[in-house]
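Supplementary Methods. Inverse-folding protocol.

Structures were first reduced to a discrete structure-token string of length 531. This string, shown here, constituted the complete conditioning input.
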């Protein structure tokens, strides 16, 4: 259940689909931008249908900007007569006849991103603003689209004629209302605000963009991954962090393409192909249809891999698959650096005991069975992704701060004037990141949810933090206050620890740290050991 009744009401049209997996399909922007037409879109649908991509799970053909031609005297959208001389209906019908689904694009403000500063002014004024219900009906009652991406260029001061800064939450919520009123119950809604919008996003949409636009270069993929390594706590209940469309199959190396696609899969991002599907290279098609990687993305647990350990330049990511807290897990060892790295993957790090069997998801073959650990060499820009199956499942002992849930987290406004904690890269932190700017209000806290133990009993909680002065932390476990404790680090660059004996119940627990009135120290990690 949602915490707030009004948000529950907003999500009713999507509630029946709340457990759907990340969207798989194709989007026109990366390759074609505004240069689209009926032939382009229909030929891409044909290619998805005939190439094996549809059989692998890809469903959506998304028209991403560039189809507009202003509005008529009644405010009704007009479709570009040269690009789509028969309108959009024949295109949607063609897509549907192939057993695929049709996606469309607009903006929460006055103008779409592609229409701003574009010499062809036929796209001006075609955003949703002022036409919420009219446009929702146009797309979903008249044309029977199945998906919509809503951008935000027109919601910024530079994107509308009134130089007005709109409120993201108000605009996207109003659009949800309009989608409700169409009577459609199965619309997939992607919010594109180019940054993590706030935890409210998961209450009203299926997925939300977390970064600026991707582009066809390794530095773009690496940057997007860096911004998503700490967002696993916000992927839940069939709602996903969207790392943007795929650039696989364009100009990057095969190793970079594998990392790009593999990490998008293990981190449960929507998979929207961005290349020209009529010109797929064989190696690109093999990668995009890799059933083992796709299975990690489409897993019924709907989880994003979280950061278990940083080792040198490499990040070890892990998540449950098939069964929550089971003996099978997905593991990715990701190397963003420009040199090959040696990694010792300890199975204790990924909470598996006994002999552990590894299945290589890229080669789609057994990698071997090992006891304790395995030595790996990860090439520059490379990743290894395994299904790991252990003899036993161990309780997790290390909880990095970057895996925690911050109820006030957002990336749109100054986090100091409107107190909201942030994740910050820090080489002095064990996992490479820490959480800072906590406190000042009860809601600006940090929570580790799903702290699962197999036995009720006493545990030692070791908290690692950074603090240049004395600051207080209040501890709460399962909604019960435990006490308030003063930190004594006096050094913002050197970590310090605090040990607190606590009691946990068998099963899932929630551990919360907060300070309702003042700032807290920066938090690195929490470790738990049974007493």
């Amino acid at each position: 259940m949602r915490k707030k009744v009004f948000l529950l009401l907003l999500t009713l049209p999507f509630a029946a689909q709340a457990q759907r997996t990340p969207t798989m399909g194709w989007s026109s922007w990366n390759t074609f931008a505004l240069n689209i037409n009926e032939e382009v879109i229909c030929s891409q649908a044909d290619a998805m249908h005939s190439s094996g991509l549809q059989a692998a799970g890809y469903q959506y053909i998304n028209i991403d900007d560039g189809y507009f031609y202003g509005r008529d005297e009644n405010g009704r959208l007009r479709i570009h007569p040269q690009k789509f001389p028969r309108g959009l209906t024949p295109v949607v019908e063609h897509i549907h006849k192939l057993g695929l689904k049709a996606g469309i694009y607009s903006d929460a403000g006055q103008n779409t991103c592609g229409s701003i500063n574009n010499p062809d002014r036929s796209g001006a004024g075609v955003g949703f603003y002022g036409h919420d219900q009219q446009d929702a009906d146009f797309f979903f009652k008249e044309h029977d689209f199945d998906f919509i991406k809503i951008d935000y260029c027109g919601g910024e001061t530079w994107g509308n004629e009134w130089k007005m800064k709109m409120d993201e939450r108000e605009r996207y919520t109003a659009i949800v209302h309009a989608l409700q009123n169409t009577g459609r119950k199965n619309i997939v809604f992607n919010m594109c605000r180019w940054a993590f919008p706030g935890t409210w996003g998961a209450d009203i949409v299926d997925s939300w963009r977390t970064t600026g636009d991707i582009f066809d270069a390794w530095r773009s993929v690496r940057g997007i991954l860096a911004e998503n390594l700490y967002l696993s706590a916000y992927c839940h209940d069939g709602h996903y962090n969207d790392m943007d469309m795929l650039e696989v199959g364009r100009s990057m190396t095969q190793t970079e393409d594998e990392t790009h696609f593999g990490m998008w899969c293990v981190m449960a991002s929507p998979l929207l192909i961005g290349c020209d599907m009529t010109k797929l290279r064989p190696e690109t098609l093999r990668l995009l249809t890799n059933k083992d990687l796709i299975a990690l993305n489409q897993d019924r647990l709907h989880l994003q891999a979280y950061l278990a350990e940083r080792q040198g330049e490499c990040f070890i990511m892990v998540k449950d698959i098939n069964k929550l807290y089971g003996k099978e897990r997905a593991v990715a060892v990701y190397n963003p650096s420009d040199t090959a790295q040696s990694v010792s993957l300890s199975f204790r790090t990924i909470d598996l005991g006994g002999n552990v069997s590894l299945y290589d998801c890229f080669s789609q073959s057994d990698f071997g069975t090992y006891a304790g650990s395995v030595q790996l060499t990860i090439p520059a820009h490379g990743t290894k992704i395994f299904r790991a199956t252990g003899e036993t499942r161990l309780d997790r002992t290390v909880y990095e701060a970057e895996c925690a849930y911050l109820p006030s987290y957002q990336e749109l406004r100054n986090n100091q004037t409107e107190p909201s904690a942030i994740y910050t890269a820090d080489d002095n932190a064990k996992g490479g990141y820490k959480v800072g700017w906590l406190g000042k209000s009860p809601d600006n806290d940090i929570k580790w949810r799903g702290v699962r133990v197999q036995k009720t009993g006493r545990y030692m909680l070791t908290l690692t933090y950074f603090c240049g002065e004395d600051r207080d932390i209040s501890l709460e476990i399962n909604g019960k206050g435990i006490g308030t404790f003063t930190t004594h680090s006096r050094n913002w660059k050197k970590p310090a620890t605090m040990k607190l004996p606590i009691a946990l119940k068998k099963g899932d627990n929630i551990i919360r740290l907060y300070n309702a009135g003042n700032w807290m120290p920066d938090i690195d990690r929490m470790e738990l050991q049974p007493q």
